[in-house]
What does this fold into?
Amino acid sequence: MKNRIFYQDRDLTTFNQLMEEYGWIIYENALEDEFIDQINESLKEAYIIRRDIQIKNGIGANMNGTLHHLVDKNSFSLKFLEQKFCDFEIKDFLKGNYILNSLGAVINMKDEKPYVQNIHRDIRSYTGDFKLMIQMMVVLDNFTEENGATYFLSGSHKQEQKPDEKYFYEYSDRAIANKGSIILFDANLWHAAGKNYTDHQRRALTMAFTRPFFKQQMDYPRLLGYELKEELNDDLRQIIGYNSRLPATLHEYYQPIEKRMYQPNQG
It folds into this structure.
C-alpha cells in the first residue's frame, strides 16, 4: 500500500502528497507495546461507565463498543496528548495551532453493529480545500479484514455527496495495520468500520483535531477544571483548549492580552 510509511520516516512532503491523493495515511510503529497495554487496560472500566450511561439514557441500541470523551487527568489521555504524535503534520494540515475536538475509542466486537459501521464522514459540513478538522486513529490491536479493519474510499475527501453503498464497498481500501500504528485522515473522507467476524476485540482510539475556533464536542478545560491549566505545559494547554476558551462575564472579557481566555495566536 503506497500510503503506508514508518512513523520515524515521516516528512511533510510525503504527508501532503498522500493526503491530497488518498485522503489518509498510515504511520507504522508509532506507539510502544507497553503504552498500548496501558491504554487497553484503561478502556475496560471506561467502557463500563459509558455503556451504563448509554443504556440508562435510552441510546444504547447502536452504541455498542463506543467510548466517547476519554480525557481525564487520571487516565492515559494527558500522557498521550503530551507526546504530540504527528504534531507537525496536524499543524501543516490546519495551517497553525490546533485543539482537541474529541478523544474516544471504538471496541469492535463480533456480531455487533454500532453506528461507526455506517458509511460516514466525521465532519457534517463538506469543507473542500478549507481544512477545519483532521482525524487520528490509533491502532490498539492488529487491523485485519476479518476483525473489521476500517474501509476508506480513497480520494472521496474531494467529493461532497455520500457514495452509493455498492460503489463504496466495491472500491474502498481497507486499513490493514499493525498494533501501534497511527492513521491520519481528512475529516471529509468517506469511511466505515468493518464487521468483526472473529472472537477477539478490535480496539482503536479515535480523535479529532480542529482549528482553535471550532467548537469542541465537550468543554475539556471545564471538564478537567480551569485551575489545572497552571499544572500543564504550554503544549497541553494549547491542545486541550485552554488558550481558546470563551469568556462568560464582562470581567473575563476585559483583560490584558496575556490574560485573555481566547489568545491572539488561535487563528
Summary: The helical segments are 12-21, 33-56, 77-82, 87-94, 165-171, 220-224, 234-240, 250-253. Strands lie at 4-6, 24-28, 66-67, 99-108, 133-139, 151-152, 173-174, 182-186, 191-192, 202-210. Residues 33-56 form the longest helix (24 residues).
